[in-house]
Write a structure and sequence with these properties.
Layout lengths: L2 H8 L6 E5 L5 H10 L2 E6 L2 H9 L4 E3 L2 H4 L8 E7 L8 H11 E9 L4 H10 L23 H11 L1 E12 L4 E4 L4 H4 L2 E8 L1
Parallel strand pairs: 1-2, 1-4, 2-3, 4-5
Antiparallel strand pairs: 5-8, 6-7, 6-8
Length: 199
Amino acid sequence: MRYDLKIIASWIDPGSRVLGLGCGEGDLLHWLKTQKQVIERGIEQKEERVVKCIEKGISVLQGDINEELADYPDNAFDYAICSQTLQQVYDPSTLIREMLRVAGKCVVSFPNFGHISVRYQLATTGRAPVTPELPHEWHNTPNIRVLSLNDFKGFARQTGFKILKQAAINTKNQHAAGRRVYLLPNLFATYGIFLIGKE
């Protein structure tokens, strides 16, 4: 399992109800189901990933997280997780509000566009940066939001949700390993992970 998913998994209480938004191939939900006995539900848009989830025994719905989330009642889950997808969402404010409606706590994570390598590439080449965490060119990237760790903290203050936990990380070995970043995280972390709740 990816290093960032291990951190997210450590924040989830055993036996809780968990909704994975853009759950990919279901690695995190499968681990939580087998190791922490959570009651899991995933939403994933890509059919081939949904098939992988089903093969793992994950309860998953194929659809758009912006539309499918509206079908769930208030407080249907203990946790909603949106891992490395927020930067691809058209209306992150509405999505986070909906996540906090259906779950008591939410986890969001995203690549940090404030990382020093991103700043360096933009400053020295004048071109959109390409890094291991942001591997696409400007014309084929799925990312439509450019945010840093500091941007997200400011967003939390403006929109009125509380940051309960946070982790700034760097990963390596194709994201299988990594380390926490404590010194100047907005400059040196490649990813940010936040556990949020209502004020």
